[in-house]
Amino acid sequence: MKVTSIDDLRKKRNSIFLRKGKDLILDNGQSMHLLTRNLWVAVPEFFPDKYFPVTLAGAKQFLKHGTVVRK
User: Fold this and answer.
1) d(CA 44, CA 12)
2) What's the CA gap between 1 and 69, in Å, rounded?
3) How far from 36 is each of 19, 21, 40, CA to CA, in Å?
4) Which domain holds residue 59?
5) 0.70 cut: is pTM over it?
6) 7 half-sphere exposure, CB direction, 13 A CA radius
7) pLDDT at site 41
8) Which stretches of the chain are DSSP H helices?
């Protein structure tokens, strides 16, 4: 997986959506959402009903650099 760059407007939009409780759907079908002050990621192709926590560093990298893309 690699991270692609996005512009500042999209970074701001992503963080606003997360704060408002919306899900972010990534290019590969995964989704992210905030729950109890933690960022959680769903991986539907392997575990359709489970969410996994993301570290603060991983969340910052996603919001700074963009969407996660499979290689």
Assistant:
1) 26
2) 6
3) 11, 10, 10
4) 2-69
5) no
6) 2
7) 74
8) 8-19, 56-65
